[in-house]
């Protein structure tokens, strides 16, 4: 799936985009039960005279009542469309809460720098961090334009002097570099902040 925000995804695949929201479906399967004064006719026109002729549905949001006139086939069509929409929503939720997205969210920027601060991680914790970082590099960074890695330490360590163009070779090189890092590196109290400033100092970096 493309690395887009949920709001953008909803613009493309949401109920409103596919004319499946309740307010869009109701006018297609019935008419509103109300009495209005119609200026052109000069008199009230009331759908309330249809009371008892049709099944009715009340919208909890505003209390409006609709007389349902659609045939069974049209109702079943909307049921089918909504079931497919529910399945699509489930797939999106499963995707959002799996693999690297569960830890890092969805990367939407095209040029990023990942700052590595392992602190006092044990060897096992260090390996878990490297596993997670390798995952995000291979799953998400492969879909953007440029990236770099900086390790926060007494002497900052960069993977590349500047963000590099994304390619299969570049990502593979970054993963190998990551696993070659020393598990124990001396850090100063301000090394994390210094690494972040370094990362954001490049004008091309968007996050």
From TrEMBL:
UniProt superkingdom: Eukaryota
PANTHER family, per database record: VON WILLEBRAND FACTOR A DOMAIN-CONTAINING PROTEIN 3B
Protein name according to UniProt: VWA3B protein
Biological source species: Crypturellus soui
């Amino acid at each position: 799936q493309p690395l887009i925000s949920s709001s953008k995804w909803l613009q493309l695949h949401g109920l409103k985009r596919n004319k499946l929201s309740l307010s869009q479906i109701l006018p297609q399967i019935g008419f509103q039960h109300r009495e209005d004064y119609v200026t052109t006719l000069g008199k009230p026109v009331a759908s309330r005279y249809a009371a008892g002729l049709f099944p009715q549905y009340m919208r909890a949001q505003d209390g409006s009542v609709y007389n349902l006139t659609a045939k069974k086939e049209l109702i079943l069509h909307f049921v089918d469309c909504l079931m497919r929409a529910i399945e699509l929503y489930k797939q999106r939720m499963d995707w959002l809460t799996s693999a690297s997205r569960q830890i890092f969210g969805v990367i939407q920027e095209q040029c990023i720098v990942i700052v590595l601060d392992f602190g006092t991680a044990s060897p096992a914790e260090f390996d878990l961090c490297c596993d997670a970082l390798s995952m995000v590099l291979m799953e998400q960074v492969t879909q953007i334009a440029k990236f770099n890695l900086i390790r926060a330490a007494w002497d900052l360590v960069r993977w590349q002097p500047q963000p590099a163009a994304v390619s299969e070779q570049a990502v593979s090189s970054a993963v190998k570099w990551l696993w070659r890092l020393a598990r124990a590196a001396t850090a100063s109290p301000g090394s994390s902040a210094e690494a972040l400033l370094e990362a954001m100092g490049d004008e091309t970096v968007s996050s």
